[in-house]
Design brief:
This protein is of the alpha/beta class. The protein has 2 domains: 257 residues, TIM Barrel, CATH 3.20.20; 71 residues, no CATH class. It has 17 helices and 14 strands. The strands form 3 sheets. The chain has a 9-stranded mixed sheet, sandwiched between helices. Strands 12-13-14 form a 3-stranded antiparallel sheet. Helix 4 links the parallel strand 5 and strand 6. Bound molecules: iron/sulfur cluster (SF4). Iron/sulfur cluster binds next to loops. The site of iron/sulfur cluster (SF4) has 11 residues, from loops.
């Protein structure tokens, strides 16, 4: 991103657009995302998708997409929409033709050859496939509905389609061993993907998996196992020529996900759909207020607004315009925004940009340098303010100490 931090803070248009599709064929055992198991012929999906198109068009008319460079259709399972996803991609490209990276999330069971080819024609540039594991027994434990063979076939087809392809993989899962994790990584990388995201499984309260494990603290999910698997992944993935650029993300040169990088580098983004989050500048929020008079006025002294859509999928499908949506709002001062940017920037291999540190110093003063010195002394950051291995593994401590600078 070329703009200085002071400029980014005041950009009146979103630079990235996120659309959330909350439908899945079946809920996975570990999932606490905003997603619902939905029959494939449920008319709600079509109504929801058409409503998203209306909202995107309205955002364009407000000028909220004027500077938009990337778009990401996530879920849920966007590929489950089938032709509806193609229509959504066409709508986004029509509303913001300057977009250069447009990603769709997909699951192997709903990513057909026809859908891949339609997505390419409609203007998608990238597909991110939820593979998680290439071991059938592990997949069954996670409650995933695809098999390893199906995943390999669909990833290979996506690579052959010419789209940039990313794979999501998951470690510290039931039945996984060091050997099976290595086999999953090697096989996924052999398919020619340019991007891989790797996450340790989090056992979230309220999920089927949490009920299954109860209070047992399973050995397969132990924090030491998570750290070991993440380190194993780094070593194998880097041997294939992909470089880590974020705590969980690896890419071949030129294949970084620019949309996700936007989230970590302080530029405004707009999220539409149930559960979708936005981060707007004060100027961008004033544009949204023109269409949403029911929203709270911008409080004095606040320069960033975080919004989360709280409308259910049914309410969203019924929405005629942005003003029909319900949002949770959080207003941040310039200082809070700077602390947030420091925290997010510490996720990146490149570390804290000097222009961000200088911007934050103007707002936070000497306490910033004292905190950064402590984080270097305690081994979370190196002298160039890049996260160390300790910083990666104990990220919550690192991010928490940077966020403390907000107050
Ligand atoms: S496919 Fe993804 S979003 Fe859907 S239930 Fe599974 S983990 Fe959740």
């Amino acid at each position: 991103m070329a703009e200085s931090w002071d400029v980014r803070l005041h950009l009146p248009s979103a630079q990235a657009l996120y659309l959330h599709v909350p439908f899945c064929k079946r809920k996975c055992a570990y999932c606490d995302f905003a997603s619902w198991g939905t029959p494939c012929d449920d008319p709600l999906m079509g109504g929801y998708e058409r409503s998203l198109e209306r909202l995107v068009s309205e955002a364009r008319d407000l000028g909220l997409l004027d500077g938009c460079k990337t778009a990401y259709v996530g879920g849920g399972t966007p590929s489950y929409l089938g032709e509806g996803l193609v229509s959504l991609v066409s709508c986004v490209k029509g509303a913001a033709p300057q977009i250069r990276e447009l990603t769709c999330e997909a699951n192997p069971d709903s990513l057909s050859d026809a859908l891949l080819s339609w997505l390419v024609t409609a203007g998608a540039t990238r597909v991110s496939i939820g593979v998680q594991s290439l071991d059938d027994e592990e997949l069954a434990q996670l409650g995933r509905i695809h098999t390893a063979a199906q995943a390999c076939k669909r990833v290979a087809a996506a690579v052959a389609s010419g789209l940039d392809v990313s794979c999501d993989l998951m470690c510290a899962i039931p039945l996984q061993t060091r050997e099976s994790w290595e086999a999953t990584l090697e096989q996924a990388l052999s398919l020619g993907v340019g991007h891989v995201s790797v996450y340790p499984l989090v056992i979230e309260d309220g999920t089927a998996l949490a009920r299954r494990v109860g209070d047992s603290n399973p050995a397969w999910n132990d924090p030491d196992v998570q750290a070991e698997r993440m380190e194993q992944a780094r070593s194998i993935i880097e041997k294939h020529g992909l470089s880590r650029y974020e705590v969980a993300s690896y890419a071949l040169p030129g294949c970084q996900c620019r949309h996700n990088v936007a989230y970590w580098t302080g530029v405004p983004y707009l999220g539409l759909g149930t559960g979708a989050a936005s981060m707007l500048s004060a100027e961008g929020y004033l544009r949204l207020l023109e269409a949403c008079p029911h929203l709270e006025a911008l409080p004095q002294g606040k320069s960033r607004v975080r919004l989360t859509v709280t409308s259910s999928p049914v309410e969203l499908a019924d929405a005629r315009c942005l003003d029909d949506l319900a949002f949770d709002l959080e207003f941040l001062s310039e200082r809070e925004a700077a602390a947030e940017d420091l925290m997010l920037g510490a996720r990146l291999t490149a570390g804290l940009e000097p222009s961000l540190v200088n911007h934050a110093r103007k707002l936070i003063g000497e306490r910033l340098d004292a905190t950064l010195d402590d984080l270097v002394a305690d081994g979370y950051l190196d002298g160039a303010l890049r996260p160390t291995k300790r910083g990666w593994l104990l990220g919550n401590e690192l991010y928490g100490r940077l966020w403390d600078l907000a107050s």
